[in-house]
Amino acid sequence: MSTPLLRHFIDGEFVASTKTFANISPVDGRLLGQVCEADRPLVERAVAAAKAAQSGPWAHYSPSQRADLLLDIANGIQRRFEAFVAAEVADTGRPVQQARTLDVARAVQNFRTFAELLRQSGSELFEMRSADGNDVFSYSVRKPHGVVAIISPWNLPLLLLTWKVAPALACGNSVVIKPSEETPSTATLLAEVMQEAGVPAGAFNLVHGFGPNSAGEFLTTHPDVDAITFTGESRTGATIMKAAAEGVREVSFELGGKNAAVVFADCDFDAAVAGVLRSSFTNSGQVCLCSERVYVERPIYERFVAALKAGAEQLKIGYPDEDGVNMGSLISHKHRDKVLDYFQLALEEGATLVSGGAVPQFGDARDQGAYVQPTLWTDLPDHARCLREEIFGPVCHIAPFDSEEEVLRRVNDSAYGLATALWTRDLKRAHQLSRRFRVGMVWVNTWFLRDLRTPFGGTRLSGLGREGGRHSLDFYSEITTICVNP
Ligand code: NAD
């Protein structure tokens, strides 16, 4: 049986290239299909199409027409909802239920939210009196940057891609997207939706491939790319930042995390246990916001560790479409090797293994997949690499603490600064402590709850800039101030 070939989408048309790579299922190691890999000339074609669109019909869309188009795209995804779910599940091995309620639902929401925000967004106007007595008006207008390169990761492929595509198009840019080589399918479906929705040729382009010496590098180093928005590893961000320095292009980075959950003794115990289970094991720990470091106030520490162990051992790992499945596979065998290396390293660094730590055995095709058990450790010293480096798997370390100042110091003692989750009933403490964490986001008695109008992003190794709401509109726009002396 022949397997599908995923193609690029350039200037309004699907385009094949001769070089291809395999798309492998992380559930059972099966070949899902082949994916075309863009070489430099093909990426140049995509950028040229995007640039040309800036002086074609796309350039004449009013904000209101762009908002209508975003709604058409949202409706197009909604119409093919189950096809998107199936594609995301096949590439990632995640539970079908998650793809339905999070990945694809949020993709639709991303387009709807930015359509609405675009309609509501205005601009600033200031009045002043000039030295010669005239009333002078200064106002600002938003214009697109031009060509925006969008490079996205594999962990929430469609969600994170549309989080950037929607506001970039809302602001009138042309985009060239490069999805992760691990998850090419939903991006290709999105290109079909763009075509069906009548997005003008060249406004949306897709190239497939890898990072270094492949489509990712060819795109980010292209001089006609005006801005780069990237979600992925901090190290890749640093490489892209160097590329963006040539020509002083705008960048927006959402990078890695080594996030903490902090549980005070006064918390709602059951809610905190359920919350930390979610924040450590959602998407098999492959969310940049997942908690890999859990600090628990000493009076409830032993009880909390026992409850978390019981909860982790009840998680059902399995096929994406199994009833009640909580955890799927990791994204790939390569990523599993990395996670298993950390499992080994943790023991060398002195960890006590509380639960998991191995590859589950199923006795069926899943043994060819990329599964690992949800894993809990205690007793690592604060300087352990397993507590300082992002692992990006279903794993967390639990440590006791005795005071607010102590836990604040330990949470902030990290090169990353993405998110912290705080569990306490003392709201005064929650407000005061939250602003002292060196992170972009703090959740109090919840986790991963997102109002898409709020700023999102991290500090230090976790990123640069904020996206979300008007912050996205700001990043994807070039703002010109016009000063009029009547
Ligand atoms: P990655 O950096 O390996 O790859 C991300 C993308 O960059 C892929 O499309 C890849 O092909 C491309 N790429 C790699 N090298 C490149 C290069 N030299 N030039 C141009 N493009 C290049 O990341 P990943 O493994 O796909 O994703 C996991 C990482 O993403 C984790 O670190 C996670 O924390 C992070 N992440 C962050 C956020 C956030 O919002 N802060 C969200 C999701 C994921």
TrEMBL record:
Q: Which residues form the Aldehyde dehydrogenase domain?
A: 16-482
Q: Does the keyword Oxidoreductase apply?
A: yes
Write down the EC number: 1.2.1.85
Q: Which Pfam families match?
A: Aldedh
Any keyword NAD? yes
Q: Where is the active site?
A: 254
Q: Which UniProt keywords apply?
A: NAD, Oxidoreductase
Give the GO molecular function terms. oxidoreductase activity
Which family does the entry's similarity section mention? Belongs to the aldehyde dehydrogenase family.
PANTHER family named in the record = 2-AMINOMUCONIC SEMIALDEHYDE DEHYDROGENASE
Q: What is this protein called?
A: 2-hydroxymuconic semialdehyde dehydrogenase
